[in-house]
Amino acid sequence: MTKKVDKSPLDFESYAKYEIPHEYMAFTIQFFDVSQMECDDLEYDYYRQGFKIFHTEIERSSGGLFNYKMIIAKSAMTFQK
Q1: What is the DSSP string of 21-44?
Q2: Among 75, 55, 60, 67, which residue's Cα sits nearest to residue 6?
Q3: DSSP bridge partners of 66
């Protein structure tokens, strides 16, 4: 079963709200109708990919599932030797 996911760049005004440094690329990701266990797994997956999680929101939806929103960011700077 495919889950509905919306991913969009975070608007620049929200960088200050969530105290995200401007050298980061930030996104809002929303997952719809996921279990609480899936929310934990999603956080861990993004953390392993090098993202920093700045904010999360969880809201109960129908059937005991949840809508889950994360504000994540990753440094846009690369370092060379």
Answers
A1: -TTEEEEEEEEEEE-HHHHHHHHH
A2: 67
A3: 34, 60
Amino acid at 35: S
pTM, two decimals, is 0.83
In total, how many domains does the chain have?
1
Note whether residue 50 is domain-resident. yes
3-class SS of residue 12:
helix
Q: What is the pLDDT of residues 4-60, one digit of tens each?
A: 899 999 999 999 999 999 899 999 999 999 999 999 999 999 999 999 999 999 999
Show the domain range for 66. Answer: 4-11+21-75
